[in-house]
Design a protein that fits this description.
The complex is a heterodimer. Chain A is of the alpha/beta class. Chain A is 41% helix and 9% strand. In chain A, the strands form four sheets. A five-stranded parallel sheet of chain A has the order 5-6-7-11-10, sandwiched between helices. A two-stranded antiparallel sheet of chain A has the order 1-2. A two-stranded antiparallel sheet of chain A has the order 3-4. Chain A is globular and about 85 Å long. Chain A starts with 7 loop residues before the first helix and ends in an 11-residue tail after the last helix. In chain B, the strands form four sheets. Chain B has a seven-stranded mixed sheet, sandwiched between helices. A five-stranded mixed sheet of chain B has the order 11-13-12-15-16, with helices on both faces. In chain B, strands 1-10 form a two-stranded parallel sheet. In chain B, strand 12, helix 11 and strand 13 form a beta-alpha-beta unit. Classes of the chains: A alpha/beta, B alpha/beta. Chains A and B meet through strand 2, helix 8 and helix 9 of A and helix 6, helix 7 and helix 8 of B.
Amino acid sequence: MASSCLSKSKNFIYNLKFKLYLLNRTSAVTNPLFHPHLRHTISSPSSSPVRKHASYSRVNGFDRWFEPAFVGRRSHSTTSVSSDVSQLPVEPPSQQVLDFPGGKVKFTQKLIFTSNSTEERVHCYRVLDDNGQPFTDAESLEISKELAVKMYTNMVTLELMDTIFYESQRQGRISFYATTTGEEAINIASAAALNDNDFVFPQYREPGVLLWRGFSLQEFANQLFGNKYEYGKGRQMPVHYGSRKHNYITVASTVATQIPHAVGAAYSLKMEKQDSCVITYFGDGGTSTADFHAAMNFAAVMEVPVIFFCRNNGWAISTPVHEQFRSDGVVVKGKAYGVPSIRIDGNDALAIYNAVHEARKMAIKEQTPVLIEALTYRAGHHTTSDDSTRYRSIDEIEKWRGDQNPIKRFRKWIESRGWWNAVAESEYRGSVRKQVAQAIQVAERIEKPPVADMFSDVYDAPPRNLNEQEVFVRKTVKKHRQDYPSDVPL
Amino acid sequence: MASIFQGVGAATSLSSSTSIETKKFHFCSRRSPSERKACFVVVRSGGVMVDGGLNRIGGRAEQLVTNAVAAKADTPAAATASKPGHELLLFEALREGLEEEMERDARVCVMGEDVGHYGGSYKVTRGLAQKYGDLRVLDTPIAENSFTGMGIGAAMMGLRPIIEGMNMGFLLLAFNQISNNCGMLHYTSGGQFKIPVVIRGPGGVGRQLGAEHSQRLESYFQSIPGIQMVACSTPYNAKGLMKAAIRSDNPVILFEHVLLYNLKERIPDEEYVLNLEEAEMVRPGEHVTILTYSRMRYHVMQAAKTLVNKGYDPEVIDIRSLKPFDLYTIGNSIKKTHRVLIVEECMRTGGIGASLTAAITENFHDYLDAPIVCLSSQDVPTPYAGTLEEWTVVQPPQIVAAVEQLCR
């Protein structure tokens, strides 16, 4: 087998390889050493999936015909085995390269560890400078006045909505609220770059995406007050919006559980080759969870069209990023999982718009996940249950609410284009304030969902034990009517 | 170990001669799969047809054939020279059910560890990846929380995934997704998003699999609102429950047992779907109601042989539906016998038996002549040593003794 001039170690390696080759030939698919993935990497790239027929229809994105029978993502015929044979070298392998499972690697004789950090951090993509002026060499799409103004006005609406709803919690009118202060550009600009039929799996700081898609102030207020018109039927906390018709999945309080959901949703899109993608949002804190890592890994292995949008706003309640991870932020984790990634200025609406637009194209055309890390700042408190001045300085907060404020920067840009001015600003703000206040007043007066809604939708139809429990609750409430809230109808 | 297998062998021959088999209806002759779609029936145990009965959750079984009668002679294609139907092992029955559903509905897909080319650790998905492709039968990396989450996300978008846990114990990692998202999202979204997933896998005490791989997850999951739980025990009910679970719009957890995969039984050729919320009458009797499920059914049936020899007439019910309980069947039985023995594999604390005891006490207290006896495993991690492992699980002699005690 081996020539006598090979050193012992190389001889061993060669023998091993030859034995592997023999095993490859003799044992078929079931040999665990030769998982099809291995054959895939050492032979030619996989063929495209076989499709039986391409007919499907979509109604509202949720009623779809699915591809029957065979849908594959890689070739697993055994012909790849024989092609391996022809690729096997006839002379002893090179000293520098070996074919390990997973691909060829070069050897080195230097005992060098990769450092825990690079000298320079990954660069951050930006289009507008601190004064809202575009850099001359900025790679950016041209956006129309209409789109720009729509983006700006939505950001203003979001800001005002946040302020007034937050105040209403402070006044005791609603029980809870979480603002998006400082992240308005992320909310609106990312939504603007997506299509309405791209599914959104939010964390809880992205109501702007719903706003962009046409969720009305009244609908927001209804959810906050948990009245009978809200789509969640009063079952969830405030800001846990969800709207099927807007392709926005209901917010769950659990951190980062939506990330694997998004991958599963992208998987369903891949089964169908739809011209849409999935986007999921999460914060810097969310990237520590197991769900984030496994989902990133899955998405890469399965090659599904999902955009992972990380709002790195510096804080996870009171935990600053330095105590959350020691990597160079979140963007470097993409590389670890084999996911193309980019770091962007999260307070620059144009940068966000461009990045998401491009990511979407990439995700759909190449059927790949994409990771976007948007650097921004959580200028508000975590929620109404938090007072962030207890763990960070007011100066820091003020600084980010100042010139770095995404709304201010974008305003400078559209004003410099002559698309906006101070008069329009004050008019618009006045009008929105009125609308939000009105929405609150109306929502407050609407009655709550009935007791029956406490028991419906647990299953598709209530089982006997739930029916019994409902009867019991009704009896109790009827008997002690004065001890129960008067605005919940029986 | 030998005694267990003896019990298993005896039980299958016993079950094939019980009233269930003889009362099965033959109503659909062999037709092509597309025609067959329209012709199947919900078979209630004991052979009685149900029409929107009291204990069914919504119209789960479609197209109830109410005018079918036992018509073996009428269907020439069904009757062969030997007994009708075909014989297979439990894991093959699961696969058959799974395959039929995948054929019927292109939205059904499978995900789990080693389910694809490897065919599944217990061979339940063998051959499916080759037939349907490795996207529809998806091999996942080792992250139960995440692939369960993935299944939930896919389900919200319209797919009907079957999520396999290689061992039920691994699903503890997925508890967050199962409880918080699977069980809750339909409710918290106001009914906007449904989660028609099936989460299945083998659980229970096996043959020296060690403590971590011998868990009874039905104990832990039973409290989660929004999910349904069923446990299969024979090839017949395995296939029927698998199909029913896939067709259900609720998230269903299907508990299989590691030691029951090689049970052999003759099942009908015709398509059939069982009712998820129904219990199975294994052996009608008069003296005592024995409630059990999964592997313990076989220990009970073995004990039943001894009991019959001693002159007792136990009624054995395989409860099958762990959440919700089929209190209709159970109640009728208690009203007849007035004595209840529960035989389970769960641990004493917080198991299915504990909940069942509470449910029976609450609902049927007046009909009981004696306190409910519940035989369970001890509250210990399952030891590896074979003899000790055998002792943690309820054995037929204990069941016999308990019945004798109850019926004094």
